[in-house]
Design goal:
The protein is of the alpha/beta class. The chain is 44% helix and 10% strand. Strand 11 and strand 12 form a beta hairpin. Helix 19 runs antiparallel to helix 23 and helix 21 packs across helix 23. The radius of gyration is 27 Å and the shape is globular. The structure holds iron/sulfur cluster (SF4). Iron/sulfur cluster binds next to helix 21, helix 22 and helix 23.
């Protein structure tokens, strides 16, 4: 954490968050030195290393968020990012997630969010898939939902707090909120006994309620006790096969069947808020949980009765082919354009791109006119549903084997019509779920925060004095001496204590978070006093939270959820 870096930019701005290219700090560093002057100095003595991941949770809540200041542009060994829901929970270079997996930068959608949470404003929420419909729903007061959960494998801690806040935030913005306990996964993938699972479940739920989840407006459930969920999981399982799980999760012949079943249960969790009514649904997760999101989006699509695509002629074209046909159509600009004209144009102007599949299709169609249209593809529809769709389409239409082309509907109206007919004939009409991704949080001892290293994290059940002591003992981004710190400024972007301020201790107070940052990098703030302030705030938070947890015990007892599981093993 003593690497040189540009300290000229003193504000923890979103530009800093995602484009500073500084090196992610989780790598091995020796940090802190002996104080040489100034009694306030307490850059801690720790040798910091990346800790091997011991566990992660499907909800993305065990590995927490990373810092808002550093994006990690050049971490060694980060050429390939592996996302494994049950494996290593660390990401060295968040930008690679955008390139490799198609996760989008949250910055892009942030301006659309009417009242963004501070975790969004500060870049802790760094990525998303398809969050636009959620932002639109919030802005227009339309229905939407949020769902996340925990695998009850240990005590709730400050990382879980961030994820709970994201559920509560969306609930307060008008969303239907769901909080689930992934107890089947804890049993099947981690092998915890039901007695252990029950104990952790109670602790999680008390913190959930203490942090503001409204159980009157939202729904809390355990996977093991939710029959509708398990029925949905069974149906989704019919759409999934072992090869896919092998490719996505690395399952093999040794993987137990219950673990595979827990995957389809998680797919059902993700789609559960839409069981009664399709609606945009956001799932806050850690980036290592992205395989679940991709799989769930795919399964949501596969269950649909109809696909809706653009088309230009009677034959099927893939998205890349459609782009080329559209280019020819726009360039020729003649109402009487035929497929053979488009083929000639593409041969002349796009020979490299068009050389493979699209030319034979256009040649084969010959003199067939090219006319933009919206196509309904029959995927899983019953005969009755397909007939009903044909009847419901107004205006010019052409019916083919397995698809209907319509010339007077735009794509949005066609999507709406397809969903309406599906719902009227017993289908789910799922909307592909959205997701937001939290950064991992650095451990207080440096490296990854880990439940198996008590000093690296703060449990929400920690005695406030222990929380105080952990913060006081935390590693810092401080310089080797107070004199040097005053001259060069501290490295807030590499400091786990600064993370605590930005992700938790400063709360909604952006000015305070900015003040800590500026004072640190400007050399006005020294680590001893800074940690003292953070430690006191942490102790206050823990005391307050634990009081609220006690107040919530009678509320939890009144809820329709069994804390004591009937399962045995
Ligand atoms: Fe030190 Fe505080 Fe700066 Fe961290 S944020 S380096 S603890 S002064």
């Amino acid at each position: 954490m003593n690497d040189d870096h540009d300290e000229g930019e003193s504000l923890p701005s979103r530009e800093n968050v995602l484009s500073d290219g500084s090196e992610w700090s989780g790598s091995d560093h020796e940090v802190g030195r002996t104080p040489s002057d100034g009694s306030e100095w307490s850059g801690s003595d720790h040798e910091v290393g990346r800790t091997p991941s011991d566990e992660s949770e499907w909800s993305g809540s065990d590995h927490e968020t990373g810092r808002a200041m550093a994006d990690g542009g050049s971490a060694a060994g980060a050429d390939d990012v592996t996302l494994d829901p049950w494996g290593s929970a660390s990401v060295d270079d968040y930008r690679k997630l955008f390139e490799q997996f198609g996760i989008e930068a949250f910055d892009d959608v942030l301006p659309q969010v009417p009242n963004p949470h501070y975790l969004m404003r500060r870049g802790v929420v760094f990525g998303h898939r398809d969050y636009g419909p959620i932002a639109d729903a919030m802005a227009n007061d339309d229905p939407f939902a949020v769902l996340s959960g925990w695998m009850p494998t240990g005590d709730p801690h400050i990382g879980h707090k961030l994820m709970i806040e994201e559920i509560v935030y969306h609930q307060q913005q008008g969303g239907d909120a769901y909080a689930l306990v992934a107890d089947l996964e804890a049993n099947s993938a981690r092998g915890l006994s039901w007695a252990e699972i029950d104990r952790h479940t109670e602790e999680y739920l008390l913190s959930l309620l203490a942090l503001g989840f409204d159980p009157e407006e939202g729904e809390i459930y355990r996977q093991s006790g939710n029959e509708r969920l398990q029925n949905l999981a069974f149906e989704l399982g019919a759409e999934a096969n072992f090869s896919e799980m092998q490719a996505l999760y690395g399952f093999d012949g040794e993987t137990n069947i219950s673990h595979m079943q827990s995957v389809v249960t998680q797919m059902a969790d993700i789609l559960y808020p839409q069981l009664d009514e399709p609606k945009p649904t956001v799932i806050p997760v850690g980036p290592d949980q992205d395989p679940h999101m991709r799989f769930a989006r795919d399964l949501a699509d596969r269950t649909r009765y109809f696909g809706v695509t653009e088309a230009y002629a009677s034959f099927e074209a893939d998205p890349a082919e459609r782009v080329l046909i559209r280019a020819a159509y726009d360039a020729i600009d003649d109402d009487d354009i035929r497929c053979e004209d488009a083929a000639d144009y593409l041969r002349e102007h796009h020979a490299d791109e068009a050389g493979t599949s699209v030319l034979p299709k256009l040649d084969n169609a010959g003199k067939e006119p090219i006319r933009p249209r919206v196509r309904f593809l029959d995927r899983n529809a019953t005969d009755e549903a397909f007939e009903a769709l044909i009847d419901a389409i107004d205006g010019e239409k052409r019916v083919f084997e397995g698809h209907v082309d319509t010339f007077d509907l735009d794509a949005d109206a066609a999507e709406e019509l397809a969903r309406e007919v599906e719902l009227g004939h017993g289908g789910y009409g799922f909307i592909a779920p959205s997701s937001i991704y939290n950064r991992f949080m650095t451990g207080l001892t440096g490296g990854k925060m880990s439940s198996s290293i008590p000093a690296s994290h703060i449990s929400l059940l920690d005695d406030p004095e222990d929380g105080y002591d952990k913060v006081k003992s935390a590693t810092t981004g401080g310089r080797t001496s107070a004199k040097e710190q005053r001259e060069l400024g501290g490295k807030a972007d590499e400091c786990p204590v600064y993370e605590l301020y930005t992700y938790l201790l400063a709360g909604e107070d952006d000015e305070f978070a900015t003040e800590v940052y500026e004072e640190c990098v400007g050399g006005e703030r020294l680590c001893g006093g800074c940690k003292e302030q953070a430690a006191e705030l942490m102790a206050e938070f823990l005391e307050d939270h634990q009081e609220k947890r006690e107040e919530m015990r009678p509320v939890l007892e009144e809820l329709d959820i069994d804390i004591e599981s009937p399962w045995r093993r």
